[in-house]
Amino acid sequence: MYVVQTIIYGILNMIFILCAAFQVILLLKELSSYIYDIANDCFALRADQFSIEIDEEPANDLLTILISTNINWQLFHSPSYKPSNVIPLLRQACDLCGGRFIVKHSESGSKLTASMQYHHADRPPMGSLPGLIQELIMLEPDTDISYTHRYDGREYRLSTSAIHSMLEGVPLDTPSVAQWIKERIGEGLVQIMREMASE
Q1: What is the pLDDT averaged over residues 108-122?
Q2: What is the pLDDT of residue 57?
Q3: What SS3 class is residue 140?
Q4: Which is nearest to 90 in space by CA: 75, 80, 100, 78?
Q5: Using alpha carbons only, what angle is made at residue 38 by residues 103 and 100, rounded to the nearest 5 degrees?
Q6: 5, exposed or middle or buried, with CB in 10 Å at 0-12, 13-18, 19+?
Q7: Which residues contact 173 (CB under 8 A, 6 or more apart)?
Q8: How many domains, the chain?
Q9: How far apart are CA 50 and CA 56, in angstroms?
Q10: What range does the domain containing 139 cover?
Q11: Which residues of 86-133 form beta strands (DSSP E)?
C-alpha cells in the first residue's frame, strides 16, 4: 500500500510540475510571437491576405486581438501540412487571463478573436509589433498584410498593398524598405499613445 501511495504521490507531483512549467511557458511567450506563429500557419496554407487588428483599452481593462485570413483552416486537409500548437496555447493564455477565444470559419476564410484582461498579472507582454510586421513582410513580401492598432480609440493603420503602390514596384523585402516600414510603424504607435497621454 505504501509503495502504491508513493507512486501516486510521485505522479501527482510530476503533473503539478508540468502544469506549472506550462504556465511559465505561456507567461514567457510574447503576444507578437503568437501572431507570428499563426501567420506562419496561414502562409503555409498559401494565404495571400492576412489581417491583424489590435485594440488596447486600458481604461476598460481589455485587450483584443483579431486575426483574419482568406484561408479556411477547417477546409484544408493535407498530410504535408503540420500546423503549430499556437492555437491551443493562445486559447490557454486567454483563459488564464480572464478573456475569450473565438474562431469562426467560412468559405471566404477564417477569423480569430482573442481577448484578455489588459491589467491581468499573467497577461503575456505584447512584444515588438513593428518587428513582427517587418518579419512577416520579409517572410511573405507578396502577401497582402494589413495591420490596425487602436489605443483607447486612437488608431494607426498600415497596408502592404498601399505601400506597394507607393513604392512603384520596389520589393518590400528589400532590407532598407523593410526597416523603413518597421520605423514607420514604431512612430505611428508612439503617436497614438502620445495623443492619448496629452489629453
Answers
A1: 95
A2: 96
A3: coil
A4: 100
A5: 35
A6: exposed
A7: 137, 138, 141
A8: 1
A9: 20
A10: 2-198
A11: 100-106, 109-116
